[in-house]
């Protein structure tokens, strides 16, 4: 699956610089926390006072009580016909009907057929839910009993005598299911077009919802060929994995419909199936191309040419991967479709990729360059899966990290090919790696790789879709590709894909092929690929490597953000890693060395009195670096004298490492703050963005205290040159900077400058906004700058600006535009406007239910709005819980979002009180409440420990002339 929304936000919106990165981390934390909690619940004793009941571990006795299919039967092919109804029936229910025949072979003698089926009503034949036929001369044994086993989602078919080994049979079922709006299985999506409600029938099977569309052996290793047929209303089109044939007119149950059949699929897994019925239109590649590429979307969106960018980039990205994998695109066509309702970012269904609209459509006049980058990377991610994941599939979900981590890593290579000037290969550090390090530094993190037997239930599988899987997976595969070289990495991939095409693997199969490529190329490694990688995937976390430049001593240690946290997850490697250490000394060539133990010495790392050294070049390795104080001083001197001698990524890393080492009490906070001093000369994006992300915590802790004034004065001093730089290169804000990352950094410059009160900034943004207000039909604000300009103008303005933005929000027809305005409305400094906006959040006519939580969280992100939002939540908890508690994932964000600033005993007590008052009414928010309590405590400690030091430092800096 493409990344979920929470990842997309963190990665893309360079706009609301402060708030969003933090939200991404918090949600990431919530996922980790949930995992930890469920892990504990499984092993927990019932209560503190009761004696532990010796739990009869409910080891399932019967095959149908086990979540995994037995290996006695293997599917060969399916023949499935489905008919979704796009209008409700008499009971006001949207349904689909269908029938399916699966041909399977008996591999081991058995008198039991288990096949997945969930939420389907099956037709009875002679009292049984299915019909069995023998093929090729085999006779089918009579059925003795059929029934549905709800917990494990099986149709259970028991036979009077066993099936014959080697024989093939056909099992036929007919069924009715609900075409619900639940975003899983075969579901419906609705949207308005020209005042008419339109219904789309579409699918999301991954991980375990194909069984909700028709009975099937729903495990990734149960690959088969699928013959699909769809019945659909006149005026609609039907799509599936295989190419659609011309529709035929038929009459079914007295209704005239069209019947579309499809080319049979390749041998494939059920979770990659897709079918869609809609009245969309498309744009396609030229007929002379080898592979037919079609981009599908709402008619309006295609008319407005919003699919053009996706069409333009799909061909080149496919060509890139054909070369990278040395393997032709496995199918004859590639359909990609943008859906109005879709839960993840996108889904790599083989031949019919489904997307959120924001992940496939791009609107040049309206969307920002961040929106465009998102489209390019998501397309690249999904196309990478067409081989890695679809052609060759891991055997079970415990290896999901390999599938998703890999696609995440190579999506940057594909996007880099499609947009060579964007620096995508560097941006992976900021977009994926920096953020996930924050999560993986918690004691409650988890290893990338899980054991097959630990992942059983659908819930176990769903929990794996977290940022560790995607982003850390990408980081360690990138590290591997870097130390064996990208060329050898792709050579290993090529033989891996060749050996296992149309089959299934475990992750060690990839290591074996990479090892073969390494050996063939004669690359020297200190251990095998498998031994090295085991350290990174079988234990959680990552090391901090400390270099002593006086003695040449190098040590490694498990990095924990909270040094007092207790790690109770045991590691097979005692939290030691094989670390590919790289460094540059005095701007010389890059050097490499393997740190294989906890401690080592290397004379090359000893420095003379004026030497400097920076390690982990371009963040190729997944670890942090600390130095002795002399080298830190030399690095700070270097940064302030000629910062460009240190590579851009490493300038950003020095900031990020220092701030995180300070949180972990390994360096003092003053040192971290000093790494931002050179920013008055820095014009590149990555260092600035990294500094902003890290300083965000200081704003959260101190923007209501006496530190705020001097901190603002310091920021103003630091950002003024950057603001002037952009003013200059854009000829007084008239041009768009040429470089992609400059476009991002221009946003950082304006948002930082305006919030720090740089002269001319507010006037600028307010001026642009005023111009729009005087001519509402002609918004001339550059798309990249919209978020920050809206926010800044509304923050500086009053009710007039607010009401104008509100009316534009209500009128917006493009989702991303509405989102930007909705966020900006929370930027006002007027308490009464914020309170009114909070009230609007409870009125679904004003703020859609799906958006209420994020609006409240944005309001709490504003320091004036924070106490108002907290009061509001407390006053309305019961209502919020009843009306909004269902959309569980977002609901937890409410608590974490509103309590991010909490850092006093008084606030801690309020939280405890809130917990007591609402016991039993917290639902999915209870995990985030516990986390908020923990976080508040950590904040109290941090503020107590650091406030004076921070205040003194900012005071000193603010008063010193440069
Ligand atoms: C699939 O079933 C239909 C009848 O529902 C039949 O006409 C068709 O030949 C079958 N296709 C295959 C490939 O078995
Ligand atoms: C399935 O059967 C149940 C029980 O009769 C009924 O309540 C439900 O509406 C049926 N579902 C569909 C989609 O027809
Ligand atoms: C199928 O039905 C549609 C709508 O009734 C009609 O326009 C079309 O000509 C028919 N096609 C054929 C091949 O009969
Ligand atoms: C921070 O560390 C530096 C060097 O280790 C030291 O000189 C300085 O006094 C420390 N500052 C504080 C406030 O502890």
Keywords, separated by commas or semicolons:
Neutral Protease, domain 2; alpha+beta; single chain; about 950 residues; five-stranded mixed sheet; 29 helices; Immunoglobulin-like; about 45% helix; 6 domains; binds 2-acetamido-2-deoxy-beta-D-glucopyranose
Describe, in short, the structure shown.
The active site is at residue 382. The chain has 962 residues and is an alpha+beta fold.
Question: What can you tell me about this protein's structure?
Answer:
- By secondary structure, the chain is α+β, with helices and mostly antiparallel strands.
- It has 6 domains: 1-50 and 68-262 and 271-279, tricorn interacting facor f3 domain (Immunoglobulin-like, Sandwich); 281-541, Neutral Protease, domain 2, CATH 1.10.390; 547-560 and 569-640, Immunoglobulin-like; 676-755, no CATH class; 760-829, no CATH class; 831-962, Zincin-like fold, CATH 1.25.50.20.
- 44% of the residues lie in helices and 17% in strands.
- It is built from 29 helices and 29 strands.
- Strands 1, 2, 4, 5, 8, 11, 13 and 14 form an 8-stranded mixed beta sheet that branches. The chain has a 5-stranded mixed beta sheet with strand order 16-17-18-20-19.
- A hairpin with a 4-residue loop joins strand 6 (143-149) and strand 7.
- Helix 1 (5-12) runs antiparallel to helix 2 (17-43), helix 4 packs across helix 6 (369-385) and helix 25 (849-861) runs antiparallel to helix 26 (865-884).
- 50% of the residues are buried.
- Mean pLDDT is 91; it is low at 4-55.
- The chain binds 2-acetamido-2-deoxy-beta-D-glucopyranose (NAG) (4 copies).
- The site of one 2-acetamido-2-deoxy-beta-D-glucopyranose (NAG) has 2 residues, from loops.
